[in-house]
Amino acid sequence: MSNVSADLVIVANRLPVDRVEQADGTPGWRTSPGGLVTAIEPVMRANDGTWIGWPGGTDAELEPFEADGMKLVPMTMTQAEVEGHYEGFSNGTLWPLYHDLVAKPEFHREWWDSYVSVNRRFAEKAAELAAEGATVWVHDYQMQLVPQMLRELRPDLRIGFYLHIPFPPAELFQQLPWRRQLLEGLLGADLVGFQLPGGAQNFVRLVRQRVGHKTHRDLVYLPDGRTVRAAAFPISIDAAGFESMARSEPVAARAEEIRTALGNPRKVFLGIDRLDYTKGIYARLRAFSELIADGHLDVEDAVFVQVAVPSREQVEQYRILRDEIDRLVGRINGDLGRIGRPAISYLHSSYPREEMAALYRAADVMVVTPYRDGMNLVAKEYVACRFEDTGALVLSEFAGAADELRQAWLVNPYDINGMKSALLDAYRADDRETRRRMKAMRKTVTQNDVAAWADSFMQELSAIPGSHGKAVRPAKRS
Ligand code: GDG
Question: Whole-prediction pTM value?
Answer without folding.
Answer: 0.95
